[in-house]
Design a protein that fits this description.
This protein is of the alpha+beta class. The protein has 14 helices and 24 strands.
């Protein structure tokens, strides 16, 4: 039976009927959360607010930022952080870890299959139309085989807990998933501003992520590299929304942060310009989308990429992570087929289920969606960051009419899902604790030695009251996990 909380900070906190990650009911901690909440409950709300301000000041001084495109008040913002952490018990995490490994294994096989033999299409599991109409499917990658057949080296899989307490996969992020730096900074900040919350909780560390990432990258170097591989992180530049993360991860791994103009291809090899002359590059952790990677292969007007880099990759003279073309599995329509992929390639049911999904390219699904726009969440197949989305219950009639026109004009580009009552976590809002909706983005590394899931990940929190959109570009923040 849950033990009642007596501290001032949590006395008035009410989950309001939502599934709360920390409490079952007012004053009653969820099983496994008693030790954490006992520490918080010893504090007055003023003390929590003071520690919150210290944390925000530390973020500001460290320059922990993200960029918002088109923001009127300026592009660069401090990434919001909330001091009340999110706890995942070891037993629940063990199940999530198995499910994430299962999912990434199947996705990797799927990507390799659709660019080669297409068994999954021939056997009628995934329609050919769905694959070839995906905007992120790259015909240029047909027949391409990455080293060790690994297409998705770094993945951020978004998970949500619904009102029934069950965790679902909301979407996959295989191209250039972001947020790992905030996960690391959140943990460091929590240790410095609130160290006592770690006492006796046996919190698993996340600090090893940069070394694990570097090890994953070094292990996929071209076969002719005999010494320590030269790894670089390729960024679009300082105006990219995740530039802080690019610089942070490069610094943490001890590798060079480069832009396209810093690299060139000569004789089928990639070189980095240095003050001591050209230096061969073996592995590129790219944070640039396929479109801008190589103007000789993809967008010819790109000034961000490196001419000839894809042919150097094809020749096996440099390794790109993540592999070009893997974004086909990021498509939200293809997402709906991942449970079938798992059954097809692995012979078992998915450990972590998908959110039920309507595909607007199907006539019956489309009619249902158009008749229920006020109840569903509608998403564009390849948008991210909370853009291109309609949250039906929070939308206006004009917005619903706009999306009805979009869906009718291009049904392949839209999916719809039930509006889930996402779980909440107590969050410090002004001088009191209020529930705010959260998701979870664990980070998965896939390399020669198998698949590694970093414990915890990034909890993103919708700081706007009632909002279900957790993205930083839409007013969201994060918590230590």
């Amino acid at each position: 039976m849950a033990t009642a909380m007596k501290g001032a900070a949590f006395q008035s906190y009410d989950p309001e009927g939502f599934y709360d990650e920390l409490v079952e009911a007012p004053g009653a901690p969820r099983r496994g959360m008693e030790s954490l909440l006992a520490r918080f409950s010893q504090l007055e709300i003023k003390e929590l607010a003071l520690r919150q301000k210290e944390a925000e000041r530390a973020f500001f001084n460290a320059g922990i930022t993200f960029n918002v495109y088109g923001a009127n008040e300026g592009t660069e913002k401090i990434f919001p952080f909330d001091i009340i952490p999110r706890i995942i018990t070891a037993s629940e995490w063990a199940n999530l870890e198995r499910g994430l490994k299962q999912r990434i294994f199947a996705l990797n096989l799927f990507i390799n299959d659709v660019y080669h033999d297409r068994r999954i299409i021939r056997d009628g599991v995934v329609p050919e139309y769905v694959v070839e109409s995906a905007s992120s499917f790259r015909e240029e990658c047909i027949g391409l085989t990455p080293p060790h057949k690994i297409w998705c080296h770094i993945t951020g899989t978004d998970l949500v807990r619904a009102g029934d307490g069950r965790i679902y996969v909301l979407e996959d992020n295989l191209r250039v998933p972001s947020g790992a730096s905030y996960m690391l900074e959140n943990r460091d900040l929590m240790k410095r501003t609130f160290p006592q919350v770690f006492d006796g909780l046996r919190v698993r560390p996340v600090v090893e992520y940069p070394s694990l990432l570097l090890g994953t990258l070094e292990a996929i170097a071209p076969a002719d590299v005999t010494g320590k591989p030269v790894v670089v992180l390729l960024t679009p530049g300082m105006y990219n929304s995740a530039y802080f993360e690019h610089a942070f991860l490069a610094q943490q791994m001890g590798v060079e942060l480069v832009e396209g103009q810093d690299l060139f291809v000569d004789g089928g090899f990639v070189y980095m310009r240095t003050t001591r002359g050209p230096k061969r590059v073996d592995v590129i952790y790219r944070r640039i989308d396929d479109d801008f990677l190589d103007p000789e292969i993809f967008r010819k007007d790109s000034l961000l990429g490196v001419p000839g880099i894809v042919n150097a990759y094809r020749a096996g003279n440099v390794t790109l992570a993540n592999a070009p073309g893997n974004g086909v599995a990021d498509d939200k329509v293809i997402y709906s087929y991942v449970p079938d992929m798992i059954r097809y390639y692995e012979g078992g049911d998915p450990i972590i289920p998908n959110v039920p999904t309507y595909l607007c390219w199907r006539d019956a699904d489309r009619q249902h969606v158009l008749q229920n726009l006020d109840k569903l969440v509608v998403k564009a197949a390849n948008e991210a960051g909370g853009y291109g989305m309609l949250v039906g219950p929070h939308s206006t009639k004009a917005q619903q009419d706009d999306f009805a026109k979009r869906i009718t004009a291009n049904p392949r580009n839209y999916i719809a899902q039930p509006t889930l009552a996402l779980s909440r976590v107590p969050t410090l809002i002004g001088d009191k604790l209020e529930g705010r909706h959260v998701d979870l983005r664990p980070y998965v590394l896939c390399g020669r030695k198998g698949i590694k899931v970093l414990p915890g990940g990034l909890t993103r929190v919708a700081l706007r009251k009632g909002s279900l959109v957790v993205n930083s570009s839409q007013g969201g923040g994060s918590k230590d996990t």
